[in-house]
Design a protein that fits this description.
The chain is α/β, with parallel strands linked by helices. It has 15 helices and 7 strands.
């Protein structure tokens, strides 16, 4: 029976976020541990009445404190470039030993003022707060992995075992090599590199699976729908091979016309509700 797109789309969900999606505290703690000693050394400058002189002494004795300075202005890179009154400055916090240049950085960025005027009480706590903020930038990547994790859970629930009969992040060339199948129709005769999120091998069929979740819209979604439509058409006549796309998220609301075009062509286009009611199991087993 032909599926109804409107009914199918009505089952899309607005979130698959776990608690760990918002902040990866494990990563925060690990990053702070790498510079905790240096931050505690800098703590000795809090409330200093002569901070430039005290910084001179501290840096002379412990030059390694320089490595934690970028984080104090919420920068992960170890090299910072600045233009000041038409003059260019480059601070490499791995190699820099020019104390006058370092003090210029501390003055100009406001770090000396922050530390000496007791606007903070502990640089370890301050840096941890910055790490939490910077870590929020990783939510997009964590969101992608969330959908992969959801799908992987259902693949394993069906009864497949990782690296035995299902594989994660597998390239076309590796699929061809492992199972002696010609997928040149998908790679433009080897000119295009393609990697699938999951590949499931049953007795007679190789299932290549792509997953994504979009909580917000954008032009990328239209391109994604078009590219998977093309992939569906290109893979249609490959014997022993089937393409599966599992997607969800209310970000599709503004791009559902393109999604519907792919829905009409790709029989194995699923959402999370489909996984919950066992459609993946019905297909693979």
């Amino acid at each position: 029976m032909k599926r109804d797109f409107k009914n199918w789309f009505s089952k899309f969900t607005d979130s698959i976020s776990t608690y760990g999606y918002y902040v990866d505290f494990g990563k925060v703690y690990a990053n702070i541990d790498l510079i905790k000693v240096e931050l505690n050394l800098l703590n000795s400058l809090i409330g200093s009445k002569n901070i430039e002189n005290d910084f001179d002494k501290l840096f002379t004795k412990y030059p390694e404190i320089k490595k934690c300075l970028p984080l104090l202005i919420a920068v992960r890179e170890k090299e910072i470039k600045v233009i000041d009154n038409g003059e260019k400055f480059k601070y490499n916090f791995t190699t820099i030993n020019d104390i006058s240049l370092l003090k210029q950085f501390m003055v100009k960025t406001g770090l000396f003022d922050l530390i000496s005027n007791h606007l903070i009480n502990n640089l370890v706590d301050y840096a941890m707060g910055i790490e939490v903020g910077l870590g929020s930038n990783g939510r997009k990547n964590r969101g992608g992995h969330l959908m992969e994790n959801v799908v992987e859970g259902y693949i394993e629930k069906v009864g497949f075992e990782k690296n035995k009969n299902y594989f994660k992040e597998m390239y076309l060339k590796d699929i061809e090599s492992k199972w002696n199948i010609d997928l040149s129709a998908l790679s433009n005769s080897g000119k295009v590199t393609k990697r699938f999120d999951y590949v499931v091998k049953t007795k007679n069929i190789i299932y290549a699976i792509e997953t994504n979740f979009y909580s917000s819209g954008g032009s990328k979604l239209n391109e994604t729908a078009r590219s998977y439509k093309t992939l569906a058409l290109e893979s249609k006549n490959i014997k022993g091979f089937k393409f599966i796309w599992i997607t969800d998220g209310l970000g599709w609301a503004d791009a559902k016309n393109n999604l519907e075009e792919t829905f009409d062509i790709l029989e194995n286009l699923y959402n999370i509700n489909d996984l919950e009611i066992g459609r993946l199991k019905d297909l693979l087993v």
